Each structure stands twice: as C-alpha cells, then as structure tokens.
Amino acid sequence: MRSRSCNPNLAYRALSQETELGLFLPCNVIVYENEQGKTVVTAINPIVALSRIENPQLEPIATEVSTRLQQVIEAI
User: Fold this and answer.
1) How far apart (Å, rounded) are the C-alpha atoms in residues 44 and 70?
2) d(Cα 21, Cα 41) in Å, to the nearest integer?
3) Taking the alpha carbons of 2, 68, 30, 57 in that order, is the dihedral positive or negative?
4) Under 8 Å between Cβ of 49 and 24
5) Alpha carbon of 38 to those of 22, 30, 32, 48, 75: distances in Å?
6) Per-residue model confidence as pLDDT tens digits over 13-72
7) Topology of domain 8-75, per CATH?
8) Nearest to residue 69, comparing CAs of 34, 40, 44?
9) Bridge-partner residues for 75, per DSSP?
10) Helices 59-75 and 8-17, packing angle to 10 deg
C-alpha cells in the first residue's frame, strides 16, 4: 500500500511556512507484528508534532496530513 498521507507537496507547503519543520519530517510510521500475531501500526500525530512549532499557518497542513494518515492506517 502506498501512503498518500505524507507526500512531497504537503512537505513543501509546510516547509515553506516554517523552515525548521524539517526536524519533524519525514512522517514516521511503524508497522509490526506483535507477540500475539496481530499487526500494530503506530505513527506520530502530525497535529501534536506540529503544535510544538508556534506557527498558526501550519495548522491546516497538520490537519490535512493527520486526516490522510488516519485513512491510511484504517486501510491497513
């Protein structure tokens, strides 16, 4: 499955608003099988991560990334 939640266009938009945001990129997602044989998906919440940078122009980008990431996780 190809993730459309974290893509170059969104990264460019975010970096255009806040250069130091690159510290939070790329979007990290971990997929693994636990001891019970279940698939576990974990990811950094983009809204929480980007809230650490005090730039209100990032809020709509974080919301869009979060929505896309949630859709990908639900599809797994």
Assistant:
1) 11
2) 24
3) positive
4) yes
5) 33, 14, 8, 26, 15
6) 877 887 667 666 656 677 788 899 998 888 888 888 888 888 898 899 889 988 988 888
7) TATA-Binding Protein (3.30.310)
8) 44
9) none
10) 160
- SS3 of the chain: the string is CCCCCCCHHHHHHHHHHCHHHHHHCCCCEEEEECCCCCEEEEECCHHHHHHCCCCHHHHHHHHHHHHHHHHHHHHC
Residue type, 3: S
What length does the chain have?
Answer: 76
